[in-house]
Amino acid sequence: MTSLHVHDFTSILHVNQPKTSSTVDVISTRIPIRPYRPITKHLSMRCSRVVNHIDNSLKPSSSSSFFNTTFQIVPLKIGIIGFGNFGQFLAKAFKQQGHDVLATSRSDYSEYCQKHDIGFFRHIDDLCEAQPDIVLLCSSILSTENVVREIPFHKLKSDTIFADALSVKQFPRDLFLEVLPPEFGILCTHPMFGPDSGKDGWDGLRFVYNEVRIAENNIQREKCAQFLSIFENEGCQMIQMSCEEHDRYAAGSQFVTHTVGRILSHLELESTPINTKGYESLLQLTENTVSDSFDLYYGLFVYNVNATEQIENLGRAFDTVKQKLFGRLHEVLNKQMTERNTGVDKANLPAYFLPREK
C-alpha cells in the first residue's frame, strides 16, 4: 500500500475528527494509480472535468467535494461478468492502475487470465464468493437479464456496487432497480469507446455515467468515486448524464451510425483507385459496424425506446432525398419535351440536350 496526499470527501471524513479505528478503515480505501500518472493531478482537476448534464450546469457531482488528508491506498476488487474483447480491454486498465480483477464468462478464459494475473471463475457463484467490491457487467445486451437474475446476491457484501458498461442505459438501470437488494449500489456507465478507438489510450475519450443509487456518507460512496477515478486517471472526459438522456442521444448517434453502416455493407462497397476521403470514411464506417455482432445491433434497437423513431426517421429522410432527385429529373425532362414541341432555338440549348443527328 502507498501513502498519498490528496483530497477526500467532506461527506465521509471531517478535518477535526480524531483518527479512530473506524476513521482509519474509511480512509484506507482510496484511489490506486499507476506509477507514471500522479493521482493528485487528476483529483485536483475533477471538479472542472465533470460535465453535469442532469441539471445542464457545470456544477461538480456530489463525489467531487474534497479536502486535504493523508491515507493509505487499497485497491478495488473488480469482478467482471462477460469477459470477451471489451471485458478484457477494460481489465487491462484496471490492472495497470493496481486493482485486483476477477472474471467469469460462458467461454473459458482461464489461460488468458492466468497469463495476466486475473482470477477466473467458470461459475458466477464462485466469483460472488470472492466478494468483489464492484460487479461490472460486460455481457451482451440480449443476455444481461438472464445473467443478472442468476446471480446469488446473498454471497456478496451488502455494500457491493453493481455497474454496467452496456450501450443502452435505461434497460440495465430498471433491471438493477427491480432485481438487486436495496442496499446494493447501482452505477450505470457507458465508455464511448472500445478496443479499436481506445487502443492508443483513452485521453479525451468520453465516459458517460449515472450514479443511480449510491449510499451517502459510507464506504459505498468511496468505492464509487474510486472506480470512476480509474477512467479519470486515463484522461477520459467524464460526463454525468441521466439514463434517459443518454438513450435519447445514443439513438441519434450510435444507433444511426450502426444502421447506416449495416445498410452500406449490403452495397458491397470496395476501395477504388480514385477514393475520396469521404468514400474512405464510408468504407471505414462499414468495416467498423459489421465487425460488431448483429446481436449488439439488435440489442441497440430492442432495448432503446428511441431507436424505432430513428429508424422511421431514416426511412423518411431517404424517401425525401429520392423525391427531390426524381422530382428535379422530371422537371428537366418535361422542360426538354416542351422546348422541343414549341421549336425552341437549338442554338440556345446545351449540346447534351439536343437530339442526335440522324
UniProtKB/TrEMBL annotation:
Keywords: Oxidoreductase. Pfam families: PDH_N (PF02153), TYRAAT1_C (PF26213). One of its GO terms (biological process) is tyrosine biosynthetic process. One of its GO terms (molecular function) is prephenate dehydrogenase (NADP+) activity. Residues 76-355 form the Prephenate/arogenate dehydrogenase domain. InterPro entries: 6-PGluconate_DH-like_C_sf, NAD(P)-bd_dom_sf, PDH_N, Prephen_DH, TYRAAT1/2, TYRAAT2_C. PANTHER family: AROGENATE DEHYDROGENASE-RELATED, OS06G0542200 PROTEIN. This is Prephenate/arogenate dehydrogenase domain-containing protein. It comes from Kingdonia uniflora.
